[in-house]
Specification:
The chain is α/β, with parallel strands linked by helices. α4 packs antiparallel against α5. The longest helix is centred in the middle third of the chain and has 36 residues. It is elongated.
């Protein structure tokens, strides 16, 4: 079913819906998606990350949320691109697409976001498509959500609630589950008010006092208590992570953090470099729980590679706060690998969003290497034209393309435990030192003379300190 309308004010909208049966219990929920495009806004301030021209860019019509509802820089996604991303999010949550609605408005309606007339139209289209829930591609205020729910016969959630649901599905460790629960509770708290007469405020004068606290006050008290409890448990996790990090930092082993937009291929790249076997999935936010594995560089130095949760446009602030303990690995990393999908038509817009989250984490100034992944998906002419530069490496984690170049570039960019080329004369009786040289350095020449091994090698400073007495000037 396709409906198209033209409003007298000049605002246009589009509804696309598919009809389906009611289904049985246990079937995937049918979701009706609602997107809104406002007039083009000024682009986000700040310099734009350098992305090679082969990372093709779709038009960048801004479809930012209302400034009163969204305080971050305007997202430079077109309304169609934003709705396509919402489609992927809904699929990652296990929903089945029932229909879509895209409206063009001059400004958001403060009561319902989309206006009463359009709300009635959506209600009818969603009912005819047998939709179980309606998902808005914008964050709804508590009053807007209540007003919309009063007009439609399906559950109503916004983009933030959808992301929180995906996080809850994918959290595996106790820490991840706590972080998601904290974000959910902080999101729910301002939305408790106004849900029925049983939650109305009690009177404040003589003769107006009720038998006890209202259900609203009870729920708030329980939520505050649970939030304090989760904060305490996450603080213990943070202290434990700090102790682990101190033990790691006592040994000169640098940490390299993978960051990037969700579904850019970070986990696939992580597995290709470490053989860790972490979950690889085309679904968004497949990775929530951080994983750290060692990697041996061409210089024979070892580094720790950290896989992190993916970023997304307008990542809910509650999630950034809740996952701060996890994302501290990014803040403390010696080098950040910013992974992008080279085949994505909106790679530039995604890079801008990653930059915004890194600024929020106070990690924007970290040494960074831009890794354009999935070059195998580029057309042949574009793939042949790609060229690496000082700040960019092109790879295909799935096909193993460019990984050697990537490790060489990481090796050159790390300043921790620097590499030096030296000549050494080590007695053959120093078996432990010779074994350490074999394991942790690149040996270019080796000669045996009178019980002494003469070597020319590149070795890290931490190893050369042990060999100081055997260095030939």
């Amino acid at each position: 079913m396709r409906l198209s309308t033209k409003l007298k004010s000049g605002k246009s909208s589009r509804v696309v819906a598919t009809t389906a049966g009611a289904g049985k219990w246990g079937r995937p929920e049918r979701a009706f998606l609602v997107g809104i495009e406002y007039p083009t806004r000024v682009r986000a301030s700040g310099s734009e990350p350098a992305v090679p021209p082969q990372a093709r860019m779709a038009r960048s019509t801004a479809s930012a949320e209302d400034a009163d509802q969204e305080k971050r820089p305007a997202a430079r996604f077109s309304a169609e691109e934003s709705l396509a991303e919402l489609r992927e999010l809904a699929a990652s949550a296990g929903a089945q697409l029932a229909g879509e609605f895209l409206q063009h408005r001059d400004r958001p309606d403060p009561a319902t976001l989309i206006g009463r007339g359009k709300l009635q139209e959506i209600s009818g289209a969603a009912a005819s498509a047998a939709a179980d829930l309606i998902i808005f591609d914008h964050e709804l205020t508590p009053s807007q959500q209540r007003n919309v729910e009063n007009e439609v016969s399906a559950r109503v959630i916004d983009r933030t609630q959808l992301i929180l649901d995906i996080f809850a599905r994918h959290a595996r460790t106790r820490e991840g589950q706590l972080q998601v629960e904290l974000a959910q509770l902080e999101y729910l708290l301002p939305r408790l008010a106004g849900r029925g007469i049983e939650m109305s405020q009690l009177g404040g004068g003589i003769g107006t006092r009720g038998p006890g606290e209202t259900q609203l006050e009870t729920d708030r008290r329980r939520i505050y208590r649970r939030i304090r409890h989760i904060h305490g448990q996450l603080e213990q996790v943070r202290r434990s992570r700090a102790q682990q990090r101190q033990r790691r930092e006592s040994v000169p082993v640098a940490t390299v953090a993978l960051v990037g937009y969700t579904n850019a291929g970070k986990s696939t790249l992580f597995n290709a470099l470490t053989s860790a076997g972490v979950l690889e999935s085309a679904k968004m936010f497949a990775t929530l729980d951080p994983t750290i594995r060692p990697v041996t560089l061409p210089s024979r130095r070892k580094v720790l590679l950290s896989d992190t949760v993916g970023f997304i446009r307008n990542l809910p602030h509650t999630l950034v706060t809740a996952f701060r303990a996890t994302l501290e690995e990014v803040q403390r990393a010696a080098l950040v690998l910013q992974v992008s999908d080279a085949s994505s038509p909106i790679a530039v817009e995604q890079a801008v969003q990653v930059e915004a989250v890194l600024r929020e984490l106070e990690a924007a100034g970290k040494p960074r290497l831009h890794v354009l992944n999935k070059v195998d998906l580029l057309p042949a002419a574009e793939r042949d034209a790609v060229r690496d530069d000082a700040a960019t490496v092109h790879v295909s984690a799935l096909k193993g393309i460019g990984l050697t170049t990537l490790l060489d570039r990481i090796d050159r960019m790390l300043v921790e435990d620097p590499i030096s080329r030296v000549r050494l004369k080590v007695p053959q009786s120093e078996g432990k030192l010779l074994s350490a040289l074999e394991a942790r350095s690149r040996i270019f020449s080796r000669q045996y003379r009178d019980g002494v091994v003469e070597l020319e090698a590149e070795a890290p400073e931490s190893l050369l300190r042990r060999l100081k007495g055997f260095v030939v000037e």
